[in-house]
Amino acid sequence: MTPAKGRFKARILDATSMQRALSRIAHEILEHNPDVEELALIGICNRGVPLAQRLAAIIKGIEGKTVATGTLDIALYRKDLTSVPTKPVVKKTEIPFNITNKTIILVDDVLYTGKTIRAALDALTHFGRPRAIRLAVLIDRGHRELPIYADYVGKNVPTASNELVHVHLKETDHDEQVIITENK
Hints:
Blueprint: E1 7-13, H1 15-32, E2 39-44, H2 48-63, E3 68-72, E4 103-111, H3 115-124, E5 132-140, E6 152-156, E7 163-168, H4 170-173, E8 177-182
Parallel strand pairs: 2-3, 2-4, 4-5, 5-6
Antiparallel strand pairs: 1-8, 7-8
Helix pairs in contact: 1-2
């Protein structure tokens, strides 16, 4: 998310509650995927990347094993590029491992319409054929336009269509919170 625009409406997570949500997600991932060596976390640029790295660190703290992590840029896979007024900023995709036969956990900050995840699924197919792909998000705000759901959710936040959810992370924003703003 970009810096908060619009009228501040609510703070839904602070640094402590964000850490608790990520810890809960990590434990849920391990419950469903006990073999850490067959697991990989891939963060979607921008804020999904540090969230995936945080989840990997939590899992390592629990299991004592390193989870493979990667970075996925989906800018060129978006079907709505023609409606974007400026050219997309292409970042780096780094998946330094073979995804074939692994369980991939895609990680993003906010699940909204499902278009970002659809683009991520398209992009991921260029790297191999995973055993399974799951989705972990910090915030699920509803309003889906595609039949996509998250397997692991930090917090469900019902929102109105004129509201925006802003995730601020130390790594990207030098702040740690999730807020809702309202467009006028």
